[in-house]
Fold these 3 entries.
Entry 1:
Amino acid sequence: MRVFVEVATSGSFSATADRLDMSRAMVTRYVGEMEQWLQARLLQRTTRSVTLTDAGEACLRRCQQMLALVEDIEEETTATGEGELRGQLRLTCSVSFAYAQLGAAIADFLALHPLLKIDLDASEGALNLVERRIDLAIRISSGPDPMLIARPLARCDSMLVASPAYLARHGVPDLPADLERHRCLSYANFGKSVWELARGGETARVAVSSHFSANEATTLLRAALAGGGIAPQPTYLANPHISSGELVAVLPDWGLPVMAINALYTSRRHQSPAVRALLDFLVERFKGAPWSL
């Protein structure tokens, strides 16, 4: 059932094999055994895609329910006498936050709970937490999804940065309007052509010329480090490079919109002890947004 659910949600036998660390032939065998057991074709296979049949859609819903029940039973009955946490947690967060902060945080959390396993999906797109069986999503936004329960972890401040070499070649902007004459690096899906800045009660909207855009922060960070232009960056990612002198804050008196870092989940009622422990750990770990200091 686990193999079938992974194939159904990913739409790929190969991706399932990679995710579950097994051969593609073994994935095909398990799906075949499911179809033989139920005497029904569950998946339509072509050279380009894998889609669910009507029987497959009904089977997927039931398999997800049964797997969720199995996980609940395991979590409730497999604690050791000392109350140690067991089982597996599935998380998702952005690539940049995983790289800069969450990877190390998870390593420290697992050192405290060595019987736990954590599977992290670092991606920029919004995932269906129920379909993907995600226990916890760490997302940065101006407002959390109202359909999910949100627990605030920290604020996310951002700044404009550039390399010393770029600024030596092109000059240092003194005012937001000066950005119009610079090479700018933008997020593809957020403020690509217009940047909003604020200083005290003063605000500025600048139409920038974006020579390079990307959908995640670490790519723009590398471009800025290489002298490619001025980029907006979260402080949790940029601060180490500011401290080392590899990057310089541009227009430091002007701030970019502040966002929130939230832990999102689907239900308080069925929250496992492991999820609660991880949430408490992350709240304490990121209290006061240490990267903003």
Entry 2:
Amino acid sequence: MTDYVMGIDGGGSGVRVVIVTPELAICGQSEGPTANPSIVGTGTAAATIRAAMRAALDAAGLAADQIAAVGIGVAGAAAHHSAGWLREVVAAIAPQARIVPSADYEIALVGALGKREGVLILAGTGSLAYGVNAAGQSALAGGWGYLLDDAGGGYWIGIRALQAVARAADGRGPTTALAPALLGALGLHDALDLIPWLYRADAPRTSEVARLAPLVLEGAEAGDPVAQGILARAVDELALAARAVMRRLEMDAPPLAFAGGLLTGDTPLSRHLCAALGLASPPVPRHSPAVGAALLARLAR
């Protein structure tokens, strides 16, 4: 019988599930909304992950008992503090599978590099740097969540841009082309409309604020000084996190990987971060984080 393995990537912006063969060929996959329990709560997160698991099984034409192992990494639920919850979520759908709980950053590292060794820099809704050295020791910098830190991530960039818009409206900061761009994207007519939009929402607008980040990066590329300042600070913060991980793990020139929507591919942030780290071009991942979760589960035998 084919040894199918399922990988679950619960990044900040959505959940992705893949089912792969031993050769890592994808035979079924699905996507769903965010499953970060810090944002939507554990009940909603669990239901979202389980629905995506069922959809992937349907797409592959497989039954749950045909899945030998499941690797899972979810933003806001790293294995070091949420392993029990992750196992419970997965076991409800695949009770016979070997379950390997991880973290969204670890599966991204394994997917990008094809092995559990190197340094990952992630900038999506949140941000962090994570590394594993040749001895198997790991270190994490960042990943504190949008209220505490996540410097250089999408929410961090978006909220600083909105702060700049508010300060400009008061005359406490320079005028910026970000004001019409961001207010237009949000469907707002005046900077003061940001107050009810942000504070009177039924749920935190974390994802919506993070989705403003590409507009900020575009503004920086177009020459807006305020946007350029935010971009420069984001690059500094991400490079600082990466260097902190390398120092703690005593790694001189480790293989580097980028992950998250703001660093995947040729983006303004990835280009400027490459310059800061001495890279000729953004590193190209070998696999997606979801496949990385499946690979981690296979390696954990």
Entry 3:
Amino acid sequence: MSGETKQYTLELKDIHKTFNPGTINEKVALDGLNLQLNEGDFVTIIGGNGAGKSTMLNAIAGVWAIDKGSILIDGNDVTSLQEHKRAKFLGRVFQDPMTGTAATMSIEENMAIAARRGRGRTLKWGVTKEEKIKYREMLKMLDLGLEDRLTSKVGLLSGGQRQAVTLLMASMQRPKLLLLDEHTAALDPKTAAKVLALSDKIIAESSLTAMMVTHNMKDAIAHGNRLIMMHEGKIIYDVRGEEKKNLHVSDLMAKFEEISGGEFANDRMILS
């Protein structure tokens, strides 16, 4: 390997994004953002409102074009690739349980679509017997009783059940990068804890590289091997390993105030 440049699973180089430039509503969302993720990193991302957390995930996913910089996934420069062409590298779970699944289709049909993502379209869209057996086994792992409801419409599931199914679907093809964008924020605490435990299990068992935006500092400390804090479109703190494990919420707040020179004003993060 000597002489070769290290290949990261994700590399963000000098990313800039300003919304509504030149208008009264101009907002600098990402300001020279740099980040490198090794294979198998599970990074939790915190920061106040408007820090750039979701904007960073949207930039990676190609939801809109960045103004400057480059984005590499597994060594592939995807900066100018459209969103649907990046989808083969990515799995994503959103804050809203309604996003990411087709409500009027059954659980097995939703899973079949996820399994075929990125493949050539054929007329053969039926769910095979082998697939049904496989999906039932996968759903059993969720421990939500969904393995006996393969033909139920996804729209009939609770928010937590939908997020669990979406998580399975997002990880089915072992994406290079799994993006979790406040994926438990809309759930009650008990259901959120279950979905987080499931996230840990799926990420560990499939050896995925993952990024999780959360508004809950305790969750950010408890999950993953690395934590980054964002402020005004930049990463202001990056901690991993043992040092991360030994953190407390008070440490994070003190760190934020020390680096940013301001009070941590997001009550939602402090109180949760």
